[in-house]
Amino acid sequence: MNKSTLLLLLCSGLFILNVVLMIFMYLNKPLNSNHDRRGGHIRASDVMVERLQLDPDQEAVFKEMRAAHMAQNESINHLIFIAYDELFYLLQDDNVDEERKNQIFHKIEALTSDLNTSNFEHFLKLKSILGKDQIPYFNSFTQELREKFGPQEGKFPPPRRNN
Questions:
Q1: Are 109 and 27 spatial neighbours (Cβ–Cβ below 8 Å)?
Q2: Domain parsing of the chain, residue ranges
Q3: How many CB atoms sit inside 10 A of residue 84's CB?
Q4: Which of 2, 50, 104, 143 counts the most CB atoms within 10 A of its CB?
Q5: Band of pLDDT at residue 5, cut at 50, 70 and 90
Q6: What is the CATH number of domain 44-135?
Q7: What is the model's pTM?
């Protein structure tokens, strides 16, 4: 067997292996992916509509609530971004203005609190449009959110000790 035949066989084998691996990865995507099996993006709002079994009227109200909620959160996130920009701008000075630094920290804390309040109020409003038969779906959904976003054992390394 000469070198060119060997090279052709190796390249062909690698190509076939690559195709098989791509097919395997496509067919075994995680189910909690943000994309469906056809490659389209799955929106969180669509998942909520499906999971909470909203009727068309509830879905229309939810979409209006969601649009207002997203606009409010976008505004708050923009203000947080500006505050962080101001904070890191302070690092350019040789002597950091402690009072200004503390003001910015308090501003970031207040904005983060506003963001958390906005999210909580959004879910309260969502709950208010549900029927009694949908509340178990809502409770199950919020339980999943608690598990996903709440404290998780072993997620973060233990704090370092300063000796």
A1: no
A2: 44-135
A3: 14
A4: 104
A5: confident
A6: 1.20.120.1490
A7: 0.64
